[in-house]
Amino acid sequence: MERIVLAYSGGLETSAAIPWLRDACGAEVITVTVDLGQGGELEEVRDRALAAGAVRAHVLDLREELARACIVPALKAGAMLDAGAPLALALGRPLVARALLTITGIERATAVAHGSSGRGPHPGALDTAIRGLNPALRIVAPAREWAMTRQEIFDYASRRHIPVPALSSPFSVAGNLWGRSITSADLDDSWTQPPDELYVLTKPPAERPSEAACVEISFERGVPAAINGVAMPLLDLISSLTTIAGAHGVGRLDLVERRPSGRESRIVHEAPAAVVLHAAHADLEAFVTIAEVERFSRIVSQQYAELIASGLWYSPLRTALDAFVDRVQERVTGVVRLELFQGGCRIVGRKSPHAGCGDTAPTQPVVVGA
Amino acid sequence: MERIVLAYSGGLETSAAIPWLRDACGAEVITVTVDLGQGGELEEVRDRALAAGAVRAHVLDLREELARACIVPALKAGAMLDAGAPLALALGRPLVARALLTITGIERATAVAHGSSGRGPHPGALDTAIRGLNPALRIVAPAREWAMTRQEIFDYASRRHIPVPALSSPFSVAGNLWGRSITSADLDDSWTQPPDELYVLTKPPAERPSEAACVEISFERGVPAAINGVAMPLLDLISSLTTIAGAHGVGRLDLVERRPSGRESRIVHEAPAAVVLHAAHADLEAFVTIAEVERFSRIVSQQYAELIASGLWYSPLRTALDAFVDRVQERVTGVVRLELFQGGCRIVGRKSPHAGCGDTAPTQPVVVGA
Amino acid sequence: MERIVLAYSGGLETSAAIPWLRDACGAEVITVTVDLGQGGELEEVRDRALAAGAVRAHVLDLREELARACIVPALKAGAMLDAGAPLALALGRPLVARALLTITGIERATAVAHGSSGRGPHPGALDTAIRGLNPALRIVAPAREWAMTRQEIFDYASRRHIPVPALSSPFSVAGNLWGRSITSADLDDSWTQPPDELYVLTKPPAERPSEAACVEISFERGVPAAINGVAMPLLDLISSLTTIAGAHGVGRLDLVERRPSGRESRIVHEAPAAVVLHAAHADLEAFVTIAEVERFSRIVSQQYAELIASGLWYSPLRTALDAFVDRVQERVTGVVRLELFQGGCRIVGRKSPHAGCGDTAPTQPVVVGA
Amino acid sequence: MERIVLAYSGGLETSAAIPWLRDACGAEVITVTVDLGQGGELEEVRDRALAAGAVRAHVLDLREELARACIVPALKAGAMLDAGAPLALALGRPLVARALLTITGIERATAVAHGSSGRGPHPGALDTAIRGLNPALRIVAPAREWAMTRQEIFDYASRRHIPVPALSSPFSVAGNLWGRSITSADLDDSWTQPPDELYVLTKPPAERPSEAACVEISFERGVPAAINGVAMPLLDLISSLTTIAGAHGVGRLDLVERRPSGRESRIVHEAPAAVVLHAAHADLEAFVTIAEVERFSRIVSQQYAELIASGLWYSPLRTALDAFVDRVQERVTGVVRLELFQGGCRIVGRKSPHAGCGDTAPTQPVVVGA
Predict the structure, then answer these.
(1) What is the four-CA torsion angle of C334, C340, C343, C347, rounded to 10 degrees?
(2) In what order do the strands lie in the sheet with D223-227?
(3) Subunits that touch chain B (at least 3 Cβ pairs < 8 angstroms)?
(4) Contact status, residue C46 vs residue C20, Cβ threshold 8 Å
(5) Is the ipTM of this complex over 0.85?
(6) Rounded CA gap, C173 and C193, in Å?
(7) Cys-Cys with C273: which of B78, B80, C241, D305 at CB 3.0–4.6 Å?
(8) Comparing C-alpha atoms, which of A13, A283, A324 is closest to residue A142?
């Protein structure tokens, strides 16, 4: 019997996909759930997959890998959306793709599946990431083939006795340890502020401290290494900054993007650590590098962000851009001081061993030709 | 006797330039002082020019022209320095150049002169602007030819009995109605925050209101037209926003740029109206235009900023970029709501008649060829 | 009964699509064939559509529109593929999209269909063009839904008694009056030169004249207007240059592009008029505009080419880029002299009323503010 | 007595600069002449320096260094002027700057001098290169300070009994082993073809072979390594290609650039080896890399060319761009076959071990996080 490995989030679509894949493809379904710091009880997610008919349900903890192998390169590259929002979800996709391939190899499966619906700004990004790793593997995307509304999917799942979450919340939330994003038809009036209860990482104005907080972030060759002088692993550093900056309400973004069709898509982002780290890194980089490098680095940032969004992570374009970025980062060592207050994050000082002008001269010796 | 028209600010260098030009070039010196909203008593500046030996001293009020013909195009183009600082001084240079040429024509002078020293990031920008209007006109830049320190210039002026300001302040301040910038050797330690007394447009933290303010800015085809529903002329609108945003401490920027030589240059900017208007305009533009247009508009923004900084205002490059920008601005009509609080400025709503998707289709009728 | 309007080329895929659409969608099929100068007997194509079961078969002559509304803007923008190949096929797609919509309106159809298979570098370009005109219209692409090889499609058509061309030639040829392109599995060895018989517009080396030909092309605001001083309509001018340049073997290109999957795609282009006109236009533009404008114009060229290739013709991005380009073209008036010889095209002279430097100064009068 | 090291070409300006520097600066003048393959008898140049009053005259052979350290990186980066002309002169400037600094160190000199007049598209490029190596060193540019015409310089030199070349030729020629460029007031009529006698590396039409030549160029990681299968050192390879391509008249370029002032500058280039190598390299790179990499590589090419032209060779921008380029070059190994005929150079085949799609997948193993 054929085996399909399904990227499983525990939500409505991927839960309904389990019986659908079994019926439509005549295949055993094996699920993979990747822990990227999105929160929630992954043991329950695992149980739900088995209850929905999966023959096996894997859970992989790739949080450290997300931070080290995806978030840090994007931070060093200054890769953000044009309006200044960090890319969180999109940075997790390459790891979902790799997890699918790893389990496919272990389980000797013949196809992979995922719940991406083909809507949204980059509908094919996960497919592109999968093909970047294995151009030949068959990909099945049930949500693109069935033509069901969310209510119809819910009814389908109910008929199949699949345990799925109730359709109560009008908000669609996704995220990982680098940030959350919320979309909803209820947000469509761009004139109205999103309700405070959407935010879970950042405090509402009334609960924020009445005094500004100062935080010092140390970087080593572009990589965040310490907070207030205390060195810590990346996951701890991000988690710690999420708490500190979130307490002051830093990291909320309310963006509208418009598709070629003219349709607008409003996304509310919440990413305290990402906003603070991008601001600090950008300031330090500008402090230690010449203006000409900065100017081209911003062109690289834009290309890097497009690459992440479109799923081209596993491509020679990324490795070539990384080579540029890493050369620039050789000087990006130092400390940045930020003031966090009432939703704002302001740079108030920076220092670096590379601030002087001594080391801009070429390191190779001056050689006389003959 | 030859006549030279000197761009005169009333400061040390341009005051010393009056006798220097008379001696070195054997010329009558006629001064032009341009009112761009930099503040100060221009009548006194005029008297000082005459006291220093100018045969005539003109004062031109080009504030409305600065707003209409320079600031608005830069705002529509989203032209800012990479780190988000608006260009204020550089936007005034084209008008200084034009004033010099206008007076040169009236006075039948044979050369123009200015106090630019040839230091700073764009040492030749004013020359480039002048040449953009008249490639053949002779330009004299005394401060590039004499090799004097500020103290030596002061002594030279004293010996010539020229009334000049005392050398007391260590800070060099320049500005116009769009913003101020401050440089100083005293700011060289980038780890230390600039002293609060540097800022005159923005309140220090202790004096800011304890409640956020909401402000609604209306745009018509990219041009700011009203605040909180009250239509007002550009100069009033900028002045009003300077007051409102300044009260909340919005508009302070502390930037470091690095030259190819490795030398760093720290500039403190203060530009409340510019920061708020750029933020509001960018949000509205992203709201009404498709992502593909936004992406290319940011490339145009970067080129436009370089053009302003380098003095290429009077060039076919600007008129061609303006054509692109103006086409995009046809849809940038609407209202943006911002929250100003404790130095921060956050978009909390936007609306536009062009928000719907109906008008993306081409306006030309579908024609059948035969 | 539902009606579907099918873009019909007369080839195997679109011929097989007629019965397929009738069966799969239960719809009447109405075909549209657009004459873009691709050659062949369009009356025969029309008969074939009816023989295959179309209820009506329209043929629209959009050659003049292709030249005026698509080729000329691309020429003015300098929009070519990176390796210097002109975009021919892609420039015809917007007109195919518009023809589909025009006939859809006339026939009160509810969907459009086309033969694009979803392979190739820009599989969704025609869909994007259609959506740019009407985001809501249903699009059916039979070749993406059936999973048939060319041989299977042939067998299917034979079983349905559909008259289709024999599967003899291993080469897939497409084109219009701006150029032809040829792809084939037989071209996959990139080390081997394409066979001479692939080319129909350009003479093989042995048949080319032994003397170079000189040709002078006049442009008016970027639009080609005359050859050797003889003014002629665009279609005549392109046809005439195709003959002249083709006789000397000018306009052959042999390119390889590589997909993210790593798969290479070799395309042989033949476009004598396009190659000569792009070369002449680029030289004249550089001759009359300053280097700064040229540099940004090349960035615009690259974006314009991507826009054409990806189907974003009917988008605000094009109209905004056109505004930039048209401003630059105001000076692109003059004559370029080229030498055509043995496959090469070399600029040997250019003249223009805008060659002098007099008109770079701004045209607005210098105004004194007070 | 102070010592100044002068970059000495043996031409009129630098010859006149020797007595001028002695008089104006009261300094001993030491000359450095760098052999970059420009041709001519450098021993005679050395004698002329001494005859003009230099206390010592050094000649450094940096041809191999020019090829290896400057030409190859520019070739790998695809760095050309917009119109496709290779940068030859500008690639030699960094080595002139380094030679000046090397001799300055040996001779314990306190300043360097050069003959650059401050005209031309990048008047400060050599200064920028010198400052990139030593920001503090004093630079004297006599030709910018004296206000003499070429005739006046000639008369000045004659009065000082300095042996200088006669002012007979109206053409100003400069070059090195990578190419020659010719400027002249006699070329100002852009409608007229440059006279054939300007060209010394490329044969006139009448003397070219009547049969096309085929040449195969092998690259290893972007570096040209062999011609027709025969491996050879870079200098031999460039020299050999200059002969082969020059015989067929390949490598002539006739370009006009326009300054912001509106003044046009016509430059005739002759660079057979450079034109052929750039064409071959670009084709091979496109053959082995994906389209997304190619697109960004062209942005890098443009930035790299600007960097070379403006003298920013010794800057962190170049090393960062080199890191990008070198990563891309890892795949640029293979052979390109070109046809040279009657001034044209056409790619007719290419092959590479990296042509297949197997190696686009990431090389790191797929790791499971836990």
Answers:
(1) -40
(2) D230-231, D223-227, D213-220, D334-341, D344-351
(3) A, C, D
(4) no
(5) yes
(6) 17
(7) C241
(8) A13
